């Protein structure tokens, strides 16, 4: 597959056209941002970890019946994916309180919910990705009722598969963000699943093994990403 011109550059990835209309090449960068771009930095070899980890998890999810955009790894930092049109929603699933949930509702981090929470943000940087509900999504025509239900069902399935898997690696899946896209009219899972987009806490020590180390200046960022990848490969 030939890599053609760049279609889009995001905060952590670049997307290239290919000689097929049906697929894109995604390049994973080491660039890291937090607070909607307010904090910028680099996490050495993060792109390599996230590319590999996303590929591995998307493959697992496909086998578990969650259709997604991943096709194959092409190199350390590149993967071939199905071309999708991204639904402009950040779909967040939470098993325990953390981050913006704790801040918004004034509760401590680490409260285990009786059942997972699904929330949506409207993916528009200039607006700061505001929280949005089903009625808003319908009013803004971002997705249909059927698509919203499909997205929720897939998000819960991803949560179940990944929570169980991470637990076998002594990692608690606290929360994560998904993005979905439309491929040939069908909603499929897209974007990435990595320590950039998940909160992962060590089950023994409670240590944060994800991008919060960068967001909160906790140090040991590279080591945490490498450690997660190492555990996943074992
Ligand atoms: N998240 C993400 N991209 C975003 C916002 C959130 O990947 O633009 C992930 C984040 O890593 C965490 C989960 O979604 O695993 C929930 O994040 P939260 O809403 O608590 O926001 P934050 O505290 O990161 O601002």
Description:
The protein is α+β, with helices and mostly antiparallel strands and 234 residues long. The protein folds into two domains: 80 residues, Phosphorylase Kinase, domain 1, CATH 3.30.200; 149 residues, D-amino Acid Aminotransferase, Chain A, domain 1 (2-Layer Sandwich), CATH 3.30.470.20. It contains six helices and 14 strands. Uridine-5'-diphosphate binds next to β9, α2, β12 and β14.
Count the beta strands.
14
Q: Tell me the series of helices and strands, N- to C-terminal.
A: EEEEEHEEEEHEEHHEEEHH
Question: Roughly how many Å is the radius of gyration?
Answer: 17 Å
* Beta-strand fraction estimate: 35-45%
What number is the mean pLDDT?
Answer: 97
What CATH architecture of the largest domain would you give? Answer: 2-Layer Sandwich
CATH class of the largest domain: Alpha Beta
Supply the helix-strand structural class.
alpha+beta
CATH topology of the largest domain: D-amino Acid Aminotransferase, Chain A, domain 1
Question: How many structural domains can be distinguished in the coordinates?
Answer: 2
* Small-molecule binders: uridine-5'-diphosphate
Q: Assign a percent range to the helix content.
A: 25-40%
First-to-last CA distance: 31 Å
Q: What is the number of helical segments per DSSP (H or I, 4+ residues)?
A: 6
| Dominant shape | globular
Main sheet record: 7 strands, antiparallel
Query: Which spans have pLDDT < 50 for at least 5 consecutive residues?
Result: none
Q: Can you tell me the CATH superfamily of the largest domain?
A: ATP-grasp fold, B domain
């Amino acid at each position: 597959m030939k890599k053609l011109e760049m279609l889009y550059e995001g905060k952590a990835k670049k997307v290239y056209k290919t000689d097929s209309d049906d697929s894109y090449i995604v390049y994973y960068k080491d660039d890291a941002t937090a607070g909607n771009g307010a904090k910028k930095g680099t996490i050495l070899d993060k792109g390599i970890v996230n590319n590999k980890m996303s590929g591995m998890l998307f493959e697992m999810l496909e086998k578990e019946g969650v259709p997604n955009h991943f096709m194959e790894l092409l190199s350390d930092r590149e993967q071939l994916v199905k071309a999708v049109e991204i639904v402009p929603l950040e779909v967040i699933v939470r098993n325990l309180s953390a981050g913006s949930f704790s801040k918004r509702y004034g509760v401590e981090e680490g409260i285990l919910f009786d059942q997972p929470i699904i929330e949506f943000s409207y993916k528009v940087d200039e607006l700061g990705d505001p929280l949005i509900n089903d009625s808003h999504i319908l009013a803004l025509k971002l997705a249909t009722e059927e698509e919203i239900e499909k997205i929720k069902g897939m998000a819960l399935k991803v949560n179940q598969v990944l929570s169980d898997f991470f637990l076998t690696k002594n990692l608690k899946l606290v929360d994560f963000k998904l993005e979905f896209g439309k491929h040939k009219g069908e909603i499929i899972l897209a974007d990435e699943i990595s320590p950039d987009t998940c909160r992962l806490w060590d089950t023994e020590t409670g240590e944060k093994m994800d991008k919060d180390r960068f967001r909160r200046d906790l140090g040991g960022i590279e080591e945490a990403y490498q450690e997660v990848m190492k555990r996943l490969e074992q």
